[in-house]
Design a protein that fits this description.
Strand content: 15-25%
Structural class: alpha/beta
Largest sheet: 8 strands, mixed
Strand order of the largest sheet: 1-2-4-3-5-6-7-8
Number of helices: 11
Distance between the termini: 47 Å
Length: about 270
């Protein structure tokens, strides 16, 4: 479905019934990225997926914007669908939106699940993004500057056939497309002002934080920092895993997200 938002169109999907999970994608992802996961995630839950502005089937922007715009786009989708309470989950860019959403609209969030997340965009991360823009000289250069860093070295080296096919697909379909790369640049730049470090203590809902031991883009120390400052947070370290948690450890990702979303509170006697 397409939902109007300030004259733009946000693409969203709803699958299944039960406790609502709103799952927000990473920067170079879209609703399509979650296709293999939909049956498992919607078996006992209502799963809401959406494309951010500048992503997937949603409208493209023409001018710079702040990530706060994506927060309000998510709220527009929830309001359109009549959702007043949900488990809000996100990975990477989507996790940044989750944290800002939970701070701006806490009444909508009953639990928060953050994968491969950061509380702010450090100078180091900002320069990585600048490197992506600089690598636009060719599709091959863009691939080599971006994609290998999404995965742990172990996963990359063990799955060379899949990696090679992925490389060919991305170069042929995306990394030579100027409109796609413009969208990635705008989304990347939209995070430059992301900094919730001083407000993490305001997030009161139960929060799951998960990070890969070998994450090269959002190092594990970033997730530890967040887990130490959200009062009701629990942290899980996923061994032998990089930034693309759902691809490298799909069963672990699904177990963590669905288990956390559906776990009943235990009150000790």
């Amino acid at each position: 479905m397409f939902i109007d938002f300030n004259g733009k169109q946000i693409y969203a999907e709803s699958h299944g019934q039960g406790t609502t999970i709103v799952l927000l994608s990473g920067l170079m992802m879209s609703v399509k990225s979650w296709r293999p996961f939909i049956p498992a995630l919607s078996e006992n839950n209502r799963l809401i997926l959406l494309d951010f502005l500048d992503q997937g089937k949603s409208s493209r922007m023409c001018e710079p914007y702040d990530i706060a715009l994506q927060v309000d786009a998510v709220k527009r989708v929830l309001d359109h669908l009549g959702i007043t309470q949900a488990v809000l989950a996100g990975i990477s860019y989507g996790a940044s939106v989750c944290m800002q959403f939970a701070l701006k609209y806490p009444e909508y969030v009953n639990r928060l699940a953050l994968f491969n997340c950061v509380a702010y965009i450090s100078p180091w991360i900002k320069d990585l993004g600048a490197g992506w823009t600089a690598a636009r000289v060719s599709p091959e250069a863009y691939y080599h500057m971006t994609t290998p860093f999404f995965y742990s070295p172990g996963f990359y080296n063990r799955n060379l056939d899949w990696i090679s096919a992925r490389k060919d697909f991305l170069i042929e379909n995306y990394f030579g497309d100027a409109d796609f790369l413009d969208s990635i640049d705008r989304m990347t730049n939209s995070t430059n002002g992301h900094d919730v470090r001083e407000r993490l203590c305001e997030i009161q809902v139960k929060t799951l934080i998960a990070g890969g031991r070998d994450d090269l883009l959002t190092p594990l120390a970033e997730q530890k920092y967040i887990s130490e400052r959200i009062p009701n947070a629990s942290m899980v370290t996923i061994e032998d895993c990089g930034h693309a948690t759902m691809y490298e450890k799909p069963e672990c990702f699904l177990t963590l997200l669905t288990g956390f979303a559906n776990c009943q509170e235990i009150k000790l006697q």
